[in-house]
Design goal:
ProC C-terminal domain-like fold; 8 strands; Rossmann fold; elongated; 264 residues; alpha/beta; single chain
């Protein structure tokens, strides 16, 4: 990629993107510019990745072609007020709950992409949903997609669907961690050691997810293939249906989606 990529903010997700971009070979370390209010954090990233840190947000904007906003929502006004961005720059925001229209209030009529990533991006297994304003053309959008594909999968959706993305894949890892913990607890209750039960539970979810993606088949079909008449699996499934697990997960996504809308 023939562009300098700037990071305004360098928390865990920002570093995950830096690592993914470099591992994918999208740019060289010298093409990454970073500004964070914590000088110690900048020094740490310099030493770890050999990238270039800059002394302020204005310097970052002037030297980067693509600027990734990786700041906390409560710091948005302080970070963007008075910041002058030329219309040839691409601004990508991973700031939770901040709409494209609000970003435009601070930055003006520039190409804007809003992204909802999720925390598995920290281990290269994330999924990100991107929404863009009318100033983003196909070539620019491909650059944004390449950045987020460096830490997992990425897709483009209308902005009005991003709250549902937050409710499903943004909050979803927490639901999955709870399921893994519960399965492991069940194994411990039946006599397995905690480390063995935890590994069995985590790898069962990992393998099952890969089966869905690799085969492209409906989860219900894959479930039926595991379920023999009067067998162990149907006995367990009957309990899950009786306890309303399916409905609880649906309602969890709904509640998180509604809350995401309230926070915009």
């Amino acid at each position: 990629m023939d562009a300098n990529i700037g990071f305004l903010g360098a928390g865990a997700m920002g570093e995950a993107l830096i690592r993914g971009i470099l591992q994918a070979g999208l740019v060289r370390p010298g093409q990454i510019k970073v500004y964070d209010i914590r000088a110690s954090r900048l020094k740490e990233l310099e030493l770890r990745y050999g990238l270039e840190t800059v002394p302020g947000r204005e310097k970052l904007v002037s030297t980067a072609d693509i600027i990734i906003l990786a700041i906390k929502p409560q710091n948005l006004a302080e970070a963007l007020t008075g910041l002058e961005v030329s219309p040839d720059k691409l601004i990508i925001s991973i700031v939770a709950g901040v709409r494209l229209s609000r970003l435009a209030e601070y930055l003006g009529e520039v190409p804007l992409v809003r992204v909802v990533p999720n925390t598995p991006a920290l281990v290269g297994e994330g999924v990100s949903a991107l929404a863009a304003n009318s100033r983003v053309d196909g070539e620019i959008l491909e650059q944004a997609l390449a950045i987020f594909r460096s830490v997992g999968a990425a897709m483009v959706l209308p902005e009005e669907q991003l709250n549902a993305v937050t409710g499903l894949s943004g909050s979803g890892p927490a639901y999955v961690y709870m399921i893994i913990e519960a399965l492991a607890d069940g194994g411990v209750r039946q006599g397995l050691t905690r480390p063995v039960a935890l590994e069995l539970a985590a790898r069962t979810l990992l393998g099952s997810a890969r089966m869905v993606l690799a085969t492209g088949e409906h989860p219900g079909i894959l479930k039926d293939r595991v379920t023999s008449p009067a067998g162990t699996t149907i006995a367990g499934l009957a309990i899950l249906e009786d306890r309303g697990v399916r409905g609880a997960l649906i309602r969890a996504v709904e509640a998180a989606t509604l809350r995401a809308g309230e926070l915009e």
